[in-house]
Amino acid sequence: MPHNQENFKINPLCQTQSYNDELQFLDKIGKNTWRIKKGFVPNMQVEGNFYVNEPLEKLMFEELRNACKGGGFGGFLPAMKQIGNVAALPGIVHRSIGLPDVHSGYGFAIGNMAAFDMNDPTSVVSPGGVGFDINCGVRLLRTNLDESDVQPVKEQLAQALFDHIPVGVGSKGVIPMGAKDLEEALEMGVDWSLREGYAWAEDKEHCEENGRMLQADPNKVSSKAKKRGLPQLGTLGAGNHYCEIQVVEEIYNDYAAKKMGIDHKGQVCVMIHSGSRGLGHQVATDALVAMEKAMKRDQIVVNDRQLACARIHSPEGQDYLKAMAAAGNYAWVNRASMTFLTRQAFAKVFVTTPDDLDMHVIYDVSHNIAKVEEHMVDGRQKTLLIHRKGSTRAFPPHHPPHPRRLPAHRTAGSDWRNDGNLQLRPDRHREGHDGDLRDHLSRSRSRSVPGEISQKHRLPGRFGQTRRSRNRHQGRLAKTRHGGGSRIVQERDGRREHVSRRRNQSEGDQTATDRRH
Amino acid sequence: MENDTLVSLEDLGYQGPLLEDGALDGALSGGAASPEFTKLCAWISTELRLYCQLEENVHATNCPSEAEAFQLEMSGLLSELACPYPVLASGDITQRFLNSTDCLLLLTFLVSELEASRMILVNKPEKKNQESGSPMFLELKGICMSLGMSKPPANITMFQFFSGIEKKLKEAMSKVPSHHVGEPLMKKALGPVHVEKIEAINQALVKEYEMRRKMLLKRLDVTVQSFGWSDRAKTHAEKLASVYQPLRSALCTKSNISVAHLLAARQDFSKILRTSSGKIREKTACAINKWLERVPNQSAQHCPPPTPGSSAKHLPSI
């Protein structure tokens, strides 16, 4: 790795280490894998790993070198340093990971994944590890259209999408929503969309968490956040969000792709990349403020002020997790709403029904979220709180669900009152703190229960997914291409590679690493 | 043939207009396009549903243009009944039940199915009283009764008893076509050590899947709960409770799969049914999914029609 000798320089970002000194802590341990040794930044509890290809490697080291020379990145440290600082957080387990195209962000780098032991009382949760756009994620819809069907009408189709889905910063939504709707959406997630008729029952089956995190609590979301979120439902937002019509270019695994709904090359799909808009942003901001105050009380020391965090089991930590789940639900409702609008747009242009176009959800996965999961660490099963920022989960089939995620089990029979309504009762059988507590009583508000449709649910499959890039997201099972725009980096087992003009992701073995954690 | 059919229909309690002279002829030649014919089929279908657990149902049509809907529904019913006649159960759906011969065959089949269902009910009425005895005793008793064995003497050894069962089984199997029961899925012979290991594996799987069932049931509960929170649903709360509660109490978290199930599984078990295949998805389709009617193309700027990927579709009822 050829790097020029730098003169010794003191600068606030890199303390008193020169670039060469920094390099002593960095080891290349594989073709695409680097190791960050303890000591790279103070107080590292574990080591760091990051995954890059050649162009990305160059960029990362350049960033580090510039930082040592005194250059800044708009208030962010270089990504490598951030990975190191995350490794210094209390309770972190195994490694602080940087997945491809990892780049600087607020506190955590974007692409930084970190897991914390739920049974370690010092473990923390950090909003910076989830990101400001809580539950920013990607949804892929299929159609039974071919490229040849769409090409002649692509202008109309694009126009229809623009008509239906507002875009841009501060854009307002077309789906009517009142304050009560918002409360319900925050609590119920896609169940709200389903009830209101915006979602199809099958959509839920292909959505992470079935489109609803059960530990959500709308009471933990500030009214400022709700105010920002209320008019924005069904909007795309700005930045790298998109609603894109895509064409299947190559199928790597026929059988699996068919099972998921992609059966031939040239098939037209739609991809929606969006998050929780202003609401998520405000939730994160509110939490950072609250946690900064609590850090002194709980004697939490971090390397970077942006890594504001709280003990997982502290009130601030629990409040954040519940609010984060609510914001997550909002984002799923948002994507469900945009799915509805996309279906409308297509139906309008093709003069048919979305049902006839077979516009099903193939998957909906989040890449900015924190979750409690079961994993094997050093041969033992542990319950971990995983922060994923710009990182997508990639479980294999049959990964065990987290058992304590469920609120206390109660038999349906014993809860029915004489008038046929459900009596919500307190959870007497809580198994201790697990970050997923749900206080039924405080939210019961004399709700009566039950429902009209009993729907068949199936556990959502965990598809192999790569981490999203800044600008494009690729499904692992099918390579897609868009009409125009920059070319995408596409790497399959290291065999094929072309570089885009901007830093873009590469696929490949990184998903395996995520799986190990 | 037609007379036989008419006689059977009368015996079965049909009292509609097709019993008149020549009426059945006319209906048969019309086939799916004849409302009278479809009405008769609908009647038979309703009767069948009284005796058998059927998911499919056939409705009468009002005019010849609704023939396709009838063809779809009847095809669904026939596949559920495992109709053995290729001319009725295979091939292009839009070409089925259009001529006299096919329609007569269809009627004959449906009528015989209905007759058989009623006969089964009469011969083997469902026992309402709970029988006493351990589950094992009841199972063995059930086996003996199904095989038509007489009650074994009290001093018979287990080996003799099971040898007797085996003999009877072989007899019964020889009377059916060779592929009727199918090959077992588990082909290896199991020794005591194998069985122990398999038991342990089964226990682990049962525990694992119990967790998953709990999760799914929890999600079901909360989804149904959310529906109940809407203002519109509050007025129907009683009705919804009465519909949901019995269905929900039938769902339990405990799995009762045992090694016995593994040993009993046949090869057709390995056919994996897609949980969201076209056929099953059709059952989740509802009015909400169809927002726009099929509108004929009116503009001069021609939009290319969509090319549907899958084959048989439900036509929207306009």
**Which stretches of chain A are poorly predicted, pLDDT < 50 over at least 5 residues?**
1-16, 406-517
What's the pLDDT, averaged over the residues of chain B? 79
Average pLDDT, all residues of chain A? 78
Give the % helix of chain A. 25-40%
Low-confidence stretches of chain B: 292-318
Helix/strand-derived category of chain B reads: mainly alpha
- Terminus-to-terminus distance of chain A: 29 Å
Q: What gyration radius of chain A follows from the Cα positions, in whole Å?
A: 23 Å
**Helix percentage range of chain B:** 40-55%
Quick overview of this protein structure:
Helices cover 29% and strands 18% of the residues of chain A. Chain A is of the alpha+beta class. Helices cover 54% and strands 0% of the residues of chain B.
Tell me what you see in this structure.
Chain A: Belongs to the RtcB family. Chain A: Mn(2+) 1 binds at residues 133, 241. Chain A: This is 3'-phosphate/5'-hydroxy nucleic acid ligase. Chain A: One of its GO terms (biological process) is tRNA processing. The complex is a heterodimer of chains A (517) and B (318). Chain A has helices at 19-23, 54-69, 79-87, 147-150, 154-164, 179-188, 190-196, 201-205, 223-229, 254-260, 277-297, 315-350, 440-444, 510-516; strands spanning 26-28, 33-36, 47-51, 92-103, 110-117, 124-125, 137-146, 242-251, 267-274, 310-311, 361-366, 368-377, 380-389, 478-481. Chain A is α+β, with helices and mostly antiparallel strands and 517 residues long. Chain A has a 7-stranded mixed β-sheet with strand order 1-2-3-4-5-13-12, sandwiched between helices. In chain A, α6 crosses α12 (315-350) and α11 (277-297) packs antiparallel against α12 (315-350). The longest helix of chain A is centred in the middle third of the chain and has 36 residues, at 315-350. Chain A is globular, with a radius of gyration of 23 Å. Chain B contains 13 helices and no strands. Chains A and B meet through β7, α6, α7, α8 and α12 of A and α9 and α11 of B.
